[in-house]
Amino acid sequence: MLHIIYILAFTILAFLAVGNLIRNLMLLGVESQRSYGNQGRFSSQPSSRQFQGRSIPHPELLDEQGNVVNEPFLVMRSMTVEDAREHLDELYNASPGYTDGAHDEAQG
Fold it and tell me: Which residues fall within 8 angstroms of residue 57, CB to CB, at 6 or more apart?
C-alpha cells in the first residue's frame, strides 16, 4: 500500500514539474518577442526624455570619441603549428630576459 502512495505522489510531482516547465518555456518565448526599448524589464526609473525613441549602443561598441564602430571586432585566420611556434619564438627572443646562451644550453 505504501508503494502505491509513493508512486502516486511522484507521478503527481512529475506532472506538476512538466507543466511548470512547459509554462515557463511558453512565457520565455513570449517575453523574448517583447520589446522593452531603453528601459530594462525590472527598471523602476523611467527613462530620460533625451533617450526616448533611439537606442543606446553597448559601451564596447563605441570608440574613444563615443562613435559607433562599424567593423568586425574579431578576425581569425588559420595558421599552422610551425607558424605559431615561430611567432612564439619571436616573442620569446624579444623578451627582456632572453639570452642566447641559456637558449642554446636548453636545446643541447
Answer: 68
Instruction: Express each pLDDT in 18-27 by its tens digit.
Output: 999 999 999 9
Alpha helices of the chain — where are they, by DSSP H?
Answer: 2-33, 81-93, 100-107
Q: Give yes or no for a contact between 47 and 55, defined as CB atoms under 8 angstroms apart.
A: no
Task: Tell me: pLDDT of 49 over 50.
Answer: no
**Percent helix / strand / coil, the chain, rounded to 5:** 55, 0, 45
Contacts of 92 (CB under 8 A, 6+ apart): 98
Q: Say if residue 89's pLDDT is above 80.
A: yes
Phi, psi of 81, deg, nearest 5? -65, -35
